Amino acid sequence: MTSGNRIAIVGAGIAGLASAKVLSREGFPVEVFDRAPDVGGVWSATRRYPGLRTQNSRNSYHFSDFPMPEDYPRVPDGAQMQAYLERYVQQFGLRANLRLNTEVVAADPVDSGWLLEVRDETGIHRTSCDHLVIANGVFSEPAMPDIRGADKFQAAGGYLCHSSEFQDVEWARGRNVVIVGYGQSACDLAEAVSHVAASTTVVARRLLWKLPRKVAPGFDYERLVLTRLGEAHFRYHTLGWFERFLHGRGVSFRDSNFDLLRELATKKTLLRELDLVPDTRFEEIAQSTFGLATEGFYEQVRDGRIYVARDTSIAEMYGTPQGPVVRLESGDQFAADIVVCATGFQQRVPFLTPYVQRQLADEAGNFRLYRHILPVTVPNLTFAGYNSSTVATLNAEVAAHWTAAHLKGAVRLPAPEDMAAQVDERLRWMDAGTAGHHAHGTTITPFALHNIDELLADLHFRLPLRTRLSQWLRPVRPTAYRGLADHKPSQGKHPRPPRPAQPDRHHADHH
Fold first, then answer.
1. Sequence spans of domains, the chain
2. Helices first, then strands: H and E counts in the chain
């Protein structure tokens, strides 16, 4: 594809904006469609919940060529993150590329690319593009549980919603709030509303490990998640020399480190005294997301402002003369004016035809994407943001450069059958390592650096040795990748790619 071909991007979140910036600078005409009135995706004002913050510090959660403002706090909140993305649009002149308040309702493949139907304030219109980039977000379609009696609960005056729909902490003032879930959004939201609600109950079907932002003096969670040494503690499907040691002869060192972290996290978050110690392995802290403790959550549990109903779920909702009520599988009952389901998201692309959707995913709904970007059998289509990670800005940016190089013919791809085999192997490994908790193959936590390394190898871009060595002990800094914007992979004849790391042929035996 030449740079004269038109590209449509669905989604104006982190991945969509990174794609728009990189592709437009490579000479492609770009249009970005988003049904929201503002940019930001999960950070949009239309869907961010009270208590939403970045997991990372502002030092690591930014694009390589656009640092966070110096007056931002160490951990920006949702409004600050959305404002940062607005500044990104302004800085790189992307405003003219945006079609906000415009939803792509259908995308049909045609010989020359894609025929799109879009809906805006004036109605439904048709447009076309030569290449389609799907950046609709892996957290775009709320997953709501089917709870018996929900209609009776709402008829009695109860309010039932998803966490992405709960946008004002004042809605909870003086009310009894029940939050379903125990992930990041559930705990963030519970801590925020517990300061104003009459009661706050968290219904946790399964307890998860949580790591405090600061584990010990000189050691915070970024040193576990955003360093090569920390990442090596989790088992990837291909292993470098140190990883082979860490998961072989050095496994006792690895296990001792996890035991120490588990003990530090348990003490720091008061888990024993609160009877909230999970019964799972500590390394399961990083599956489809990373378990980060919400500041103040466990203190609010200790002080009686939050009650965690563990190892149970809602059996029924109904109304009484006194008001709406929920009953748990454990038999407990709670008054509940508001029930918020922090129950995650579905990974769906509803605007694609059923025929195309069947080619994109397996029977379990897992997206089959080479490098988390390229469908093997659907032409003129790539995905952005389906390598969601703890450093999503950088992973999305590097993936955008990979896509640009691919569209210009500067990425040497394996044969289709080899790409399909690699995708199948990756999904088998993810299932074995996470018991299916990998967001249908769309997230790479805790392997952000591994994903970046693979994309950079395809682009024949090498970080300076000093930078790579420093990343073993120091959290990754996006500015180290700034030179990628000026790097031009060779087109046509490619140099020999780096020798891949040795496949871990026995990974399934260790899970």
1. 7-141+346-447, 143-345
2. 15, 24
